[in-house]
């Protein structure tokens, strides 16, 4: 994620695809979709996209970084804390919880739960 990824850039598309592929590969069956829109910026009208992944649990972060022109040495602004770190943390979190979420989902579905039901399922943290 730590690449130039301002909206409309090739790096933005690469990070978007990394997030979509990472979530789509998880066993719990995340429903992944893109919510796209255009907005006016200092560089004109640019397309934006939010990756939305649902499993009755929503975790969100923005993966776009602010745009700054390259510096005198030709270096791009990478935006470590805008928002490479939070997105990486969320991806690590869902990968770590994936098996537990799948087990919880199977437990709910196996107990006769139906849409609109009010069954609660808890996840237990395990210490190594």
TrEMBL record:
GO molecular function: glutaminyl-peptide cyclotransferase activity; zinc ion binding
Enzyme class: transferase
UniProt superkingdom: Eukaryota
Catalytic activity reported: N-terminal L-glutaminyl-[peptide] = N-terminal 5-oxo-L-prolyl-[peptide] + NH4(+)
Keyword line: Acyltransferase, Transferase
EC number, as in UniProt: 2.3.2.5
Key word Ligase present: no
Family: Belongs to the glutaminyl-peptide cyclotransferase family.
Protein name as catalogued: glutaminyl-peptide cyclotransferase
Native source organism of the sequence: Sphenodon punctatus
Lineage of source species: Eukaryota, Metazoa, Chordata, Craniata, Vertebrata
């Amino acid at each position: 994620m730590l690449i130039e990824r301002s909206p409309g850039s090739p790096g933005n598309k690469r990070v978007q695809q990394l997030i979509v592929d990472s979530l789509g590969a998880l066993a719990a069956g995340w429903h992944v979709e893109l919510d796209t829109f255009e907005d006016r910026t200092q560089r004109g009208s640019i397309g934006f996209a939010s990756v939305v992944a649902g499993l009755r649990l929503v975790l969100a972060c923005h993966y776009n970084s602010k745009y700054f022109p390259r510096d005198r040495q030709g270096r791009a602004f990478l935006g470590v804390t805008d928002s490479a770190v939070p997105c990486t943390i969320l991806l690590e979190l869902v990968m770590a919880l994936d098996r537990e979420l799948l087990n919880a989902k199977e437990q709910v579905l196996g107990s006769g739960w139906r849409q609109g039901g009010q069954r609660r399922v808890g996840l237990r943290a395990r210490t190594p």
